[in-house]
Amino acid sequence: MGQGFTRHCMSCGDETHYLQGIGFRYFSFLQEVKEEVRVGKFGKEAQAFIIEYPDCEFDARNEVYFCKDCKYLKQGVEINMSYGDKSFQKQYRCGKCRKVIMKPVKLDTEKQYKKFAQIPCKNCGDSEHILIDFLMWD
Fold first, then answer.
1. What single string gives the DSSP state of each residue in 30-87?
2. Contact predicate 112/105, CB 8 Å
3. Which of 74, 79, 34 is closest to 60 using CA atoms?
């Protein structure tokens, strides 16, 4: 089961969905992401790791990343690979300030959702009229 939220701007109508988890597609999702890593969709470093260690332990899931410095939200895929004492974890830089390595956020409190409702709309800049809808998905 996955969870997430939708940010809806009442001023301009922009709507963005953010998802966490995998849902019931666990094995097919892992295979799809693993293939995307092999072809370089997640960067050269991830691609080199999986080519060098094709039998590595592989885990992936949808995550929401947040830059505390500039209040930027990003939907991404958390990827973890390990083989013996070697490991790789996909890291995302902020798409706005490019400085910060963003971490996945926990969507476990009302306070967290209220904080995301205060982030200005990416289209019109309004931060007064943002609605957050919680969702569960498979």
1. HHHHHHHHHTTTT-HHHHHHHHH-TT-EEEEEEEEEEETTTTEEEEEEEEEEEETTEE
2. yes
3. 79
- Rounded to whole angstroms, what are the CA distances from 57 to 53, 63, 129? 9, 19, 44
pTM for the structure as a whole: 0.86
3-class DSSP state for residue 94?
A: coil
Using one digit for the tens of pLDDT, what is the confidence trace for 44-82?
Answer: 999 999 999 999 999 999 999 999 888 889 999 999 999
The pLDDT-based confidence of 25 (bands split at 50, 70, 90) is: confident
Sole residue written with tokens 């997430």: 4
